[in-house]
Amino acid sequence: MRVRFSLVSDRRLPEALVRHVRRTITDVCDAPDERPVPVPGLNALTWLFDLPEQLPEPFTGALSALRDELRGPAMALAVDSAFITGPMADHGPRAIVTDVDSTFITTEVIEMLAAYAGVEEEVRAVTESAMRGELDFKESLEHRVALLRGVPADVVDDVFAAIKLTPGARRLVDAAHARGAKFGLVSGGFTEVVGKIGADCQIDGYVANGLEVNDGVLTGRTYGPVIDGAAKVEAIERWQEEWDVSPDLTLCAGDGANDLPMLARAGLGVAFMGKQVVVERADCAISIPRLDAIAALVGWDIDG
């Protein structure tokens, strides 16, 4: 079995951790390929190796035990890591799909719109509860959007102008495209903003909710299918067929509870600056507010 294990941090990697990982890997295989992964502003190491059919003690018959032995000390030292098996281990994903709000961009668009209606705090409280999985996403979306009733529709342009991409987001898109991979965005936010982001960043596909407008103001309703966790999965499955990409070569990243279904179906599910419920259930987690840390985890070099 082909395996990649990677460490990434915005600080110097602890020498004791590196020695532990190196020793653990050499105990189970011969001649692992160890190298640094150049990503500006990050420190990363990756190991690519083949596991024997029968793991030696103390990992006999338990791949999860090896994964825990590698990832556990990294987590204790607040160093992000990924244990990747199968076809993605060699060359990385052929498709990356991420959430938008608080993942591809640094903010929640609905909260920015709510500021124009004077209800930002109320909307933020509902958003945070929904992202922790405490509220049904569809119901929470309807409640929050209803509070936007009467907001001039042209404020969407102001919101888009104020949006900041997460550091490394554009760099990750470029790295994917340079390797022939596709990049998609799935959002519980709004087409009117996500579409502009997609065009600006040369995204290959996106889905989001639509904001209904009448007489130049928001009606407080959405149109079209609600993009919840299930709808995100449906969009990804549609793109996988369109792009001829298998699930095990698809990497998904997000921060909230409504991202859990797509993370579970991905070849690698990444909790990006995620809520605790997401961190606990994802394949790996990134705690650095840099989206290009994903490139480091999959072994993609980025220059400049």
Walk me through the structure:
Belongs to the HAD-like hydrolase superfamily. SerB family. By secondary structure, the protein is α/β, with parallel strands linked by helices. It has two domains: 91 residues, Alpha-Beta Plaits, CATH 3.30.70; 212 residues, HAD superfamily/HAD-like (Rossmann fold, 3-Layer(aba) Sandwich), CATH 3.40.50.1000. It contains 14 helices and eleven strands. A seven-stranded mixed sheet has the order 8-7-6-5-9-10-11. Helix 13 links the parallel strand 10 and strand 11. The relative contact order is 0.17.
Task: Using brief descriptors, characterize the structure shown.
alpha/beta, amino-acid biosynthesis, magnesium ion binding, Rossmann fold, hydrolase, 14 helices, four-stranded antiparallel β-sheet, Alpha-Beta Plaits, seven-stranded mixed β-sheet, 304 residues, 42% helix, metal-binding
Task: Return the string of H and E elements.
Answer: EHEEHEHEHHHHHHEHEEHEHEHEH
Mean pLDDT: 93
**Distance between the amino and carboxyl termini:** 33 Å
Low-confidence stretches: none
The biggest beta sheet reads: 7 strands, mixed
What sort of overall outline do the alpha carbons produce when their principal axes are compared?
elongated
CATH topology of the largest domain: Rossmann fold
How many individual β-strands?
Answer: 11
Architecture per CATH nomenclature, i.e. the level-2 architecture of the largest domain: 3-Layer(aba) Sandwich
Helix content: 40-55%
What is the topology, as strand order, of the major beta sheet?
A: 8-7-6-5-9-10-11
Q: Number of helix segments?
A: 14
According to CATH, the homologous superfamily of the largest domain is HAD superfamily/HAD-like
Number of domain units: 2
DSSP strand content: 15-25%
Gyration radius, rounded: 20 Å
The top level CATH class name of the largest domain: Alpha Beta
